[in-house]
């Protein structure tokens, strides 16, 4: 898996014309706008048709049987594997940042790549999802609601409820980690010289992320909306954070990859 070699010396940043920088910023503005519109559309959908959540969860469980998939040994092992995988990439990025602090590079990648990944993991799954939303929203998990044999009331995704004290259903922490993992994998695979390796590895990472997120619905631990909004929120954070790495200057943060594009900006 050959990596794209950076241009220039170890201490100089590649020259990138201002027009290219502005194109990158424009693409990211479009991505941010589309994500915001998609978030609003999903909010309107689940607010007008709240029955979607219990209906989808009902495919995997019932009040009489609970959620059988959650008891399957194979599924439990797979979930554990994915949790370790998602966490490992975040820790790898943190290691990359620590190496950069002493003037070394991990896998010859610029430190901005690792800082970006750590930022996505920290601001998304850690702060917004687990630190704020899950701790305060009060939405009961599907398995705890009356519809599936529990004693808690169902509440729509954007309604702050009192059916849960902590570690609640809205939004999904594991889906947030899965999204951060997929975004990080996309950025990292852009540095691979081979298109086959880039597409193959990112495709595998995306498959892990999607299956891990949907497994939470099948387990009865989250509603579909929990997973969808978790992915949207982390994606919004990632795109917003990426603007930090595109400056309005002739020299742009990041090493140059092939075709003269700056390293992290290839993800633009």
Per the principal axes of the C-alpha atoms, what is the gross shape?
globular
What low-confidence regions span 5 or more consecutive residues with pLDDT below 50? 5-12, 248-263
Our count of domains comes out at 1
Number of helices: 7
Mean pLDDT: 88
Q: How does the helix and strand content classify structurally?
A: mainly alpha
Largest sheet: none
Order of helical and strand elements: HHHHHHH
| Beta-strand residue fraction | under 5%
Distance between termini?
22 Å
Provide a compact summary of the structure.
By secondary structure, this protein is mainly alpha-helical.
What does this entry look like structurally?
The chain has 268 residues and is mainly α. Helix content is 58%, strand content 0%. The chain has helices at residues 18-48, 52-60, 73-101, 111-136, 173-189, 195-218, 224-242. Helix 1 (18-48) runs antiparallel to helix 7 (224-242), helix 3 packs across helix 4 (111-136) and helix 4 (111-136) runs antiparallel to helix 7. The chain is globular.
């Amino acid at each position: 898996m050959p990596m794209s070699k950076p241009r220039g010396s170890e201490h100089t940043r590649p020259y990138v014309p201002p027009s290219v920088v502005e194109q990158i910023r424009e693409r990211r503005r479009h991505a941010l706008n589309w994500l915001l519109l998609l978030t609003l559309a999903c909010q309107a959908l689940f607010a007008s048709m709240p029955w979607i959540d219990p209906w989808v969860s009902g495919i995997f469980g019932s009040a009489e049987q609970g959620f059988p998939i959650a008891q399957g040994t194979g599924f439990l092992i797979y979930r554990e594997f994915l949790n370790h995988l998602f966490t490992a990439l975040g820790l790898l990025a943190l290691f990359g940042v620590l190496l950069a602090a002493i003037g070394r590079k991990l896998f010859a990648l610029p430190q901005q790549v690792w800082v970006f990944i750590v930022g996505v993991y920290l601001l998304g799954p850690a702060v917004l999802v687990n630190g704020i939303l899950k701790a305060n929203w009060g939405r009961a998990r599907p398995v705890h609601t009356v519809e599936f044999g529990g004693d808690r009331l169902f509440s729509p995704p954007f309604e702050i409820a009192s059916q849960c004290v902590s570690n609640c259903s809205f939004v999904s922490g594991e889906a947030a980690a899965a999204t951060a993992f997929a975004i990080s994998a996309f950025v990292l695979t852009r540095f691979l010289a081979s298109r086959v390796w880039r597409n193959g590895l990112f495709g595998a990472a995306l498959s892990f992320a999607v299956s891990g997120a949907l497994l939470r619905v099948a387990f009865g631990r989250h509603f579909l909306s929990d997973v969808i909004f978790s992915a949207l929120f982390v994606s919004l954070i990632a795109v917003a954070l990426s603007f930090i790495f595109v400056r309005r200057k002739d020299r742009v943060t990041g090493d140059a990859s092939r075709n003269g594009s700056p390293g992290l900006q290839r993800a633009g």
